[in-house]
Specification:
Layout (H helix, E strand, L loop, with lengths): L1 H15 L9 H14 L12 H32 L7 H30 L5
Helix pairs in contact: 1-2, 1-3, 2-3, 3-4
């Protein structure tokens, strides 16, 4: 997660700089960083003899994808809100919704990994 936090910080820094007329817009910059983050983090295959490490690796991968996606979505939402009359977009609600979905998805995978780990260690039924 430290790598994802570092990437998030770098992207936010990039987005906060004053832009010149020729500079890339914050949305385009966030998009480029998102695509780059995806390309740098390919998913590893899950093997037929599924183990808890396979699922933990998949959860780690997905956590990085969610971190990059969150930065990208934040840029899109902020830009959209800026162009709406009165900024009529509940960014906090959308942010919380995203966090809930990401946390639920990761929890499902990590819980499955724990069940497999218990089974691997002979404690499962």
């Amino acid at each position: 997660m430290a790598q994802a936090d570092c990437m998030t910080t770098a992207i936010r820094e990039l987005m906060s700089h004053q832009s010149s007329p020729n500079a890339m817009s914050p949305v385009r910059a966030a998009h480029a960083e998102f695509v780059s983050a995806l390309a740098a983090n390919p998913p590893h295959p899950i093997h037929p003899d599924l183990g808890s490490d396979d699922l933990e690796g998949r959860a780690d991968h997905l956590e990085k994808v969610f971190a990059a996606l969150h930065v990208y979505l934040s840029a899109i939402i902020a830009d959209t809100a800026q162009h709406l009359p009165g900024g009529g977009l509940d960014r906090r609600y959308l942010d919380n919704l995203f966090h809930d979905v990401a946390a639920d998805a990761l929890a499902v995978i990590r819980n499955a990994a724990e069940e497999i780990r218990e089974h691997e260690n002979g404690r499962g039924s």
